[in-house]
Amino acid sequence: MSLINLSVDCVILGFDDDQKLKILLIKKVINKKGDIQYAIPGDLLDNDEDLLSGAKRILKNLTSLNNLYLKQFKAFGDPFRTKDVKDQSWLNMYRKNPKERVVTVGYLSLVKMEDYVPQASSFALDAEWIDLDKIPEDLAFDHNEIISSGLRYLRTQLDHKIISNLLPSKFTLSQLQYIYEILLDEKLDKRNFRKNISKISVIKKTKEKQEGVAHKPAYLYTYEKEKL
Amino acid sequence: MSLINLSVDCVILGFDDDQKLKILLIKKVINKKGDIQYAIPGDLLDNDEDLLSGAKRILKNLTSLNNLYLKQFKAFGDPFRTKDVKDQSWLNMYRKNPKERVVTVGYLSLVKMEDYVPQASSFALDAEWIDLDKIPEDLAFDHNEIISSGLRYLRTQLDHKIISNLLPSKFTLSQLQYIYEILLDEKLDKRNFRKNISKISVIKKTKEKQEGVAHKPAYLYTYEKEKL
DNA sequence: TCAAAAGTGTTGCATCTACACCCATGG
DNA sequence: CCATGGGTGTAGATGCAACACTTTTGA
What we know:
2 copies of one chain form a homodimer. Chain A has 2 domains: 5-157, Nucleoside Triphosphate Pyrophosphohydrolase (Alpha-Beta Complex); 162-227, Winged helix-like DNA-binding domain superfamily/Winged helix DNA-binding domain (Arc Repressor Mutant, subunit A, Orthogonal Bundle), CATH 1.10.10. Chain A starts with a strand and ends in a 5-residue tail after the last strand. In chain A, a hairpin with a 6-residue loop joins strand 2 (21-29) and strand 3. Chain A is of the alpha+beta class. Chain A has 6 helices and 9 strands, in the order ββββαβαββααααββ. Residues 120-124 of chain A have low confidence and may be disordered. Chain A binds chain B through residues 1-7, 44-52, 54, 72, 74-75, 77-79, 96, 100-101, 103, 105, and chain B through 1-7, 44-52, 54, 72, 74-75, 77-79, 96, 100-101, 103, 105. The first copy, chain A, binds a DNA duplex through residues 172-174, 189-192, 194-196, 210, 212-219.
């Protein structure tokens, strides 16, 4: 018989205040001693729930994030993906059928800083932005692999529709260039980058400038969302 | 509760003798009167079976195709995807739990002509190569949508690792160009195409030529598979 | 000898890359 | 007045598109 637990797991990227690309991880209490483990946000799908709807619901529950760009990138179906010893304690605590296999569908989502400010709420205890290069190597289940796969997907599918979801509604060209450099993992030439951007019709210069910076203030740009 | 039936469905493309790109569909007897319906090959996943292994097993069962390049491209989780009236008769005949939801994972696979010659076997009654532009519009479940999605994936992800699976082990550059033209849906310039190919290190010219053709015989080329 | 597909180079144009200095601001 | 990042143009190299004729074979 082939009844299987199905879940969704979300790779969520965002900019933090210090202008570094980060991933949102949740903390899970994995035993009665209160030990914790990091994981990406995800949970079992409800009956009669569409994959995308489920991803949105779960993300909202776990992180209060809402209205995201969410892109399915891959299903993970290794029958042993939840069988690692390190994961059994948590499964036993929270799952009705901890021994049963779980297939998961990975979603990628990108959030603007301005959409999500961690608060001193109950939630703030449960989730944390982590630098991309400081992801713990012992995340729950196969979450490290899911993250790698999501990032690889992002790098190969890079476009403005995706990028625009990472940036605040007004941004400087340096911020934009920074995101490209992180995602492509290479330095870009400032002048060439700006020449290319000027060809992209959905990115418009505004008349506003940065304020309060100790250098020449940059003009702010914006995406014409309706044209993306 | 979230126990869900999980299946895999395969979009299989190949070249037929008349050099047209075709898709392999299976015929399903959908009621006791013997009415048939077309579908892409797919079935429920076994317990403790990896997605890819399942896709291979099912494909072998249904089509005797073996040793394929198989690429997962998308999961389809609409809770109503098997609820259409047209699909109930078959579900009632063959499924233990016809009312239960089925989430499916789509795999794309491309086969060489030489690997699969339809025979007058029991199988030949069950499967058929259909021209891409002659796919019935009333395939089982959401299979029309799965095919569209698979083709879109193929066109946007076009690379030699994929293409090499459509061609015989020795092929002419015209055959290669023809495949690109079909998949990209545009004419390519012969000289420019050949210039580009010559830069691709995994494609090697052999010393063999076509035989028995009523024109200048073409040199045969081959992929260095181990480098793909 | 004819038909059919194979094979082959060059040129102009567009695109990309590399590169260095002055400017506006806050501290 | 200093440190910081913002902003700008050009020249040379590279890559891409367009284009037509000769060759080899089987019939």
